[in-house]
Amino acid sequence: MAMLETILATVSGLGGAGLGVGGALLVQRAKRRDDTELAESSARRDAARAEATARRAEEQLTLEILATARVAARGWLIAAERAINDLQHCQTVDAERNDEQIQAELKEFTTALYRVPPRWTPNGWLGGSPVSRPLVEQLSEMSLLLRNVLHSSQPARTELESTLSRARTLHQA
Fold this sequence. Notes:
Elements: H1 2-88, H2 95-115, H3 135-151, H4 157-172
Helix pairs in contact: 1-2, 1-4, 2-3, 3-4
């Protein structure tokens, strides 16, 4: 009987040790899985934060670019209005100086708009406008029309008013 008790004690000790080892392995595996999940979720959070920061920086840059374009468009409109008003009041206009100023504003406007990231170009700015022509092309056409009016010897009053009206409409678009 002593032998049987010794065998049972040994088997139970070994069984308890086996259960302890199995439990320890399961705990270690669960801890590793939890650590991996924690690291992955931390990496996802960091990536999301970095993406949000990059998006905010891009939005800020785009807003600054659009503000530059808006100022240039306003400068273009002021120069165009001044030239047309001078012509309407029969004052002399330095066509070359005015043309240089309008072209400089147009260049600044165009440069600013083409710096806008592609995903920030809604219909009408650089292409695909509802009027079927991009705003840059329309502004260039208006500049050319204004240049022709300034260089003509005696522009018609209706032509001046039409040009000014189109320029204002284009600026408001």
